[in-house]
Amino acid sequence: KWEDDREIDDQIFVTFEFPGKTYYQEDGHTVNNPDDICVVTYSSINTNRWEPYGEAVFGSRGTMIMKTEKEALLYKEASATSGGGLDQRLWVIEGTKGGGPVLDSYETSAPTAAAAMASDEMGPKISRGYREEMEHFCYCIRTNKDELRCNGVVAMGDAIMAMTANLAMQHKQRIEFKPEWFDPASDATPEADFA
Fold this sequence. Notes:
The protein is an alpha+beta fold.
C-alpha cells in the first residue's frame, strides 16, 4: 500500500467573507446589514514546471491572471452592452514619456499597435517576483532605510489570513477572525485559539 506522506494538499479552496459597504453602521462596530458581504474564494493548485505558478482573480467585471509574478492578463467580463471573455483582452498601456496608465481593449487575438509598443518598452522581465522582494528587504536592513514595500502591520495581516486559512482546513471548520489578532500590541494569535 502506498503511504501518503505529503504535507501539502494538491488543491485547496478557501472562502473568505469580508464586510461590504453597508455591513456596519457608521460607528464601524454595530452590524447594520449582515447580508452585505463580499465573498472571495482563494484556490491553490500544485503544479510542476509545465504549468507555471500564478494567481487568478475572478470578479464580476473582469478576470485578472498573474503569471509567475511577471505578466498580468486582464479580461473584461461580458455585459449587456459589450462583449467579454478571452475575445476581449484589456491592456494597461503606460509609455515611458510620463503619461498615466490607459486601458486599451481589443476583440481579436492580437494586441493593438499601442499595446505591442508598450509591451516592448517594458521588456521581457518586469520583475523577478519574490526574489526581488527579498533583495529589497535585505537592502532595507543593510542600509537601515525605512522604505519597505510591505510594512510589518500589512505583512502580519497577510500572515494571519494565510495561517487562519490553514487552521480552517486542518480543523475542517469555519473560523471568524478576531480584531485582536491584527493588533500588533496584542499577544492573541489564531494558533492559540485553535491549536
